[in-house]
Amino acid sequence: MISRTHRFHGYGSLKYTYSRGETVRGPLCSTKYVFNPRRNKYRLAVVVNKKVNKSAVVRNKIRRRIYEVVRLVSDKIKNPCDIVITIFSEQILEIPHDELVTMINAQLHQAEII
Question: Which terminal residue of the chain has fewer beta carbons within 10 Å of its beta carbon, N or C?
Answer without folding.
Answer: N
